[in-house]
Amino acid sequence: MVTEEDVRRLALSLPETTEKPMYGMPAFYVRGKWFARVKEEGDLLVLPVGSQEEKAELIAAEPAKFGTTPHYDGHAIVLVRFGAVDAAEMGELLADAWRLRGPRRRAAGFEG
């Protein structure tokens, strides 16, 4: 099970990442663009994904790991349950989200 501290450590290990609060919870940014934030419940991570189709596929394939709320309808954003992923998978998910929001030239060459 991943903890908030694990998420922080993994996110801050990504290039040019900073942390500042969003809605009173930890959020992670690259060059001023958020790419992950802990949801108010404390056991969910909010992450952007490549498309609404990708979001639907993740939720359909692994509903124990991924979810959404009506607030995120129409947005390519997925919720990840801390208790359903290990640190390695969370690291991959964070790196993917970083690539979506990171500087294009750096993101293209970043292997995570």
Secondary structure elements and pairings:
Blueprint: H1 4-12, E1 17-22, E2 25-30, E3 33-38, E4 44-48, H2 52-61, E5 66-67, E6 77-81, H3 87-101, H4 104-109
Antiparallel strand pairs: 1-2, 2-3, 3-4, 4-6, 5-6
> Radius of gyration, rounded?
13 Å
Number of domains: 1
Strand count, sense and barrel status of the largest sheet are: 6 strands, antiparallel
| CATH architectural type | Alpha-Beta Complex
Helix content, binned percent: 25-40%
**How many DSSP-defined strands?**
6
Would you give an account of this structure?
The protein is an alpha+beta fold. The protein has one domain (4-104): Aspartate Aminotransferase, domain 1, CATH 3.90.1150. It is built from four helices and six strands; from the N terminus they run αββββαββαα. The protein has helices at 4-12, 52-61, 87-101, 104-109; strands spanning 17-22, 25-30, 33-38, 44-48, 66-67, 77-81. The chain has a six-stranded antiparallel sheet. Helix 1 (4-12) packs across helix 3. The two termini are 21 Å apart.
